[in-house]
Amino acid sequence: MAIETYYPFQQSEPRWQRAWSEAGIFRANGDGTRPKSYILEQFPYPSGKLHMGHVRVYTIGDAMARFRRMQGFDVLHPMGFDAFGLPAENAAIKHDTQPGAWTERCIDMMREQLVRLGMSYDWAREVVTCRDDYYRWNQWIFIKLWEQGLVERRKAAVNWCPRCETVLANEQVINGRCWRHEDTDVDVRQLDQWFLKITEYADELLRDLDDKLAEWPNLVSAQQRNWIGRSEGALVKFKVKETGEELPIFTTRPDTLFGVTFMVMAPEHPKVQEWIKGQPNEPAVRAFINKIVHEGRERRTDEAAEKEGIALGLSAINPVDGREVPIWLANFVLMEYGTGAIMAVPAHDQRDFEFARKFEIPVRVVIQPEGVELSANEMTAAYTEAGVMTNSAQFDGMQSERAKGAIVEWLTGLKQGEPTVQYRLRDWLISRQRFWGTPIPFVYCDECGLVPVALDELPVRLPENARFGQGGNPLAGVDEWVNLKCSKCGGPARRETDTMDTFFDSSWYYLRYCDPKNTDLPFGAEAQTWMPVDLYIGGKEHAILHLLYSRFFTKALRDLGLIKLDEPFSRLLTQGMVLAEGTDPRSGERRFFKMSKSIGNVVDPGEIIEEYGADAARMFILFAAPPEKDLEWSPSGVEGISRFINRLWRYVQNNLTALRAGLAEGGAMTPAELTRQDDRDLLRQAHETTRRVTNDLGERAQFNTAISACMELLNALYAWPDRPEDPLARRLAAFATARLALLLSPFAPHLAEEIWHQLGAEGLAAAQAWPQFDPEALKVETVEIALQVSGKVRGHMSVGIDEDEDAIKQRALADEKVVAFTEGKTVRKVIYVRHKLVNIVA
RNA sequence: GCGGACGUGGCGGAAUUGGCAGACGCGCUGGACUUAGGAUCCAGUUCCGAAAGGAGUGGGGGUUCGAGUCCCCCCGUCCGCACCA
Fold first, then answer.
1. Disulfide check for A507: which of A75, A553, A701, A747 has CB 3.0–4.6 Å away?
2. What is the distance in angstroms measured between the alpha-carbon CA of A425 and the sugar C1' of B10?
């Protein structure tokens, strides 16, 4: 009689969470007696509440960490909180409190939720970036980078978000809008700001994508490559005829130099202001510049935007042939790329072509494609491909690809140019005009200028009495904090009130986990033992931002002598989003969307844990899709997993006496001890499942197939005839059940413990060695093979495992189904694939 | 335009090295048990066909004894970058 029971997760889950914590089995050791494995998930912003995306990334990481730990690795699996940032400051304004208090409350709530999910973290290593035992090291690193020449304060055109009331890094501007405010255009302002010179590492950051990060997803490497944007070309020195000054340009097409018919400068180019002063066209040019600059970068860099320009009334001399060409200003030339000025070759560049046609500037063909005669007057588009050089003096007749090098070499000899490499990557603007971040540890002294705070005076703590909601940066309003005496001269000085971008905090936190209590250094030799992170798991949205900054930090810290390491994350897994069904507010269409309040399709992990338990939530998320793909949340899918859990639970309850006895009697067995075929099949399947789950959790990281293998084993247990009175069958059932518990423990750790315990097994399941499969038990005597006639399956046949190939072929040819399809035909060929099939070609 | 990912039943997804397409789960259909069933257990479920059989992995071609998988062309979806000289 079947007992109707359900797995009592409400009682079970807290019990095992307590047991794990008391046993301390998730502590990372680091004594070098076992191989290390560093498994890390991107730490959360402490909003106070986990969302499904968090559950997904942390479940994936936890399954991996538990698996590696059971495999005998010394696993470092830490957790912390990326706790500085705007939401805390906004909460402080709204609730008239301090951001620190609000943040700490949120951290406590999130930590509790993570514990309730059964995550196996080494909580003793928790890192919280808004505490001064962490951010003092931000300040320490900042000063070290400054000493190294990698920090610079300078005036520059920067992006300003009026909603955030702060500047942003280039990486935080998306289509001209703020990354946090999709509806807010950023302004460009000229401000004095702090920069980290990431561009000094552009080449290494690019190179190592290929050399050292071959295992990263192509998507991420490609996006970083694109963002760094290396182009090879030449710097060519044009000369302004009227002033005699040099006007250098960057080009990737030196082969088109003889086709230059005009030059274009960016409207903001500083030289323009000098050159037009007092000229008759000054008012017109100024009006043009104002118009373009006020248009904003968003409109201006839109490819569809109409080309606009004005002639400067000056001319430039082309160094290759001494020709004079007019200099223009145009909206499509940007100050921040190259030299802010370009040579224009309308015949061979589409932008230049459109501009030339609009303003009736001559077109000069210097590259001819094979077989076609280009005519400057009749062209309707630029010819941008390679071809044969023409109208190019001594280079005529040369292939244009070869001419690129030849022309640059010739110009270099004449000191009129040189080969050069340009990057799209800009320096990282790191300062923010906000309160809730690491104070930049510098002081402005009237006498001594810019002075770094002495290292032994760190941390520069945030004041606890700042007032919020007054507009501007609250730090600037705390007079007793801002004003101090200069440490050098004792005169009056003011603190820098800018704080650091929170991406600074997250660029090295993975190093702090290695040595979280260090009071002398941000991290010591411990980091060398644990690094690099063996598996890093996080979202694709950080493909450029966080992942590029962290790579840069690792290289910079290496060059400061803090660690011997080139790349922080050996392997990267970018997990997909969690989607749920919702109704499109515009079209009314029902489909899957990213969970959002506005669509109303948010599923709260707290409620799911409440209703189905942490293990069901974990297993569903791992089962529903491979980790890197988007996952469609399905209520009936969660039911399905819950059904599986209860089905396993019920199996154990219904057979508990026999299973306990079977385990006490020895459990494991060899195939030789079993005589019944169904027993041997079940034993084989238990080992086969072990093999598959081990393989899936290893290199493949395919949790969905691992879980389906476990489901198959349970199905097999149900199909297998229980014989509680047969000692051998008892042992077999106990072995298979205990094995299933261990194989499931990375996914459903509480259920695994509960079953392990019920069976009467010793110790904690999470602390057991990962099960091995017995190759002997995997062996079979016979195997089903397919019989094909001309590639189509026509039947099946059982063959002995060592049966002779010729014998198999003979039997296959005699098979009645085969005969039916080969009758009257000539058998031309018989192909045998061992243990798979026979294909008879007729 | 450049770069990346992808396209398999009603749905999520399997198919690991070129070898039996559709594992596992959802949903659906039928049955058992039952006062009841939205519980549980059992069976079935790619499509067409009564069956034999045929068709089938976005479309078209190719290589091969054999292609979801490799090659070429095309179509479509999603993501990133984009007047970058």
1. A553
2. 49
Which nucleotide lies closest to A340 by the C1' atom and the CA atom?
B85
- ipTM given for this complex: 0.95
- The Å distance, CA of A780 to C1' of B46, is 31
CB within 8 Å of A629: residues ≥ 6 apart: A576
Protein A645 CA to nucleic acid B41 C1', in Å?
16
| Beta bridge mates, A193 | A154
- Dihedral of the CA atoms A355, A358, A361, A367 (nearest 10)? 50
DSSP state of A307: P
Which nucleotide lies nearest residue A632, CA to C1'?
Answer: B12
Burial tier of A640 (Cβ tally within 10 Å: 0-12, 13-18, 19+)? middle
- Hey, what amino acid is at A584? D
Across residues A471-486, what is the average pLDDT?
90
Q: For A168-181, how does the pLDDT look when each residue is reduced to its tens digit (9 = 90+)? A: 888 888 877 888 88
Edge-to-edge strand ranges of the sheet holding A631-632: A590-594, A578-583, A631-632
Q: Which residue is nearest to nucleotide B82 (CA to C1')?
A: A303
What pTM was computed for the model?
0.94
CA A776, A778, A782, A787 torsion-angle sign: negative
**How is residue A490 written in tokens?**
């004792």
Please give the nucleotide, over all strands, whose C1' is closest to the CA of residue A714. B24
Question: A378: which residues sit within 8 A by CB, 6+ positions away?
Answer: none
Contacts of A541 (CB under 8 A, 6+ apart): none
Q: How far is the CA of A754 from the C1' of B45 (A)?
A: 36
A558-603 pLDDT per residue, tens:
999 999 999 999 999 999 999 998 887 777 778 888 888 888 889 9
Q: Identify the pLDDT of residue A1.
A: 36
CA of A710 to C1' of B30 (A): 28
Tokens of A621: 């998320």
* CB neighbourhood size of A562 (10 A): 20
* H/E segment holding residue A341: strand A341-344
Residues in chain A: 842
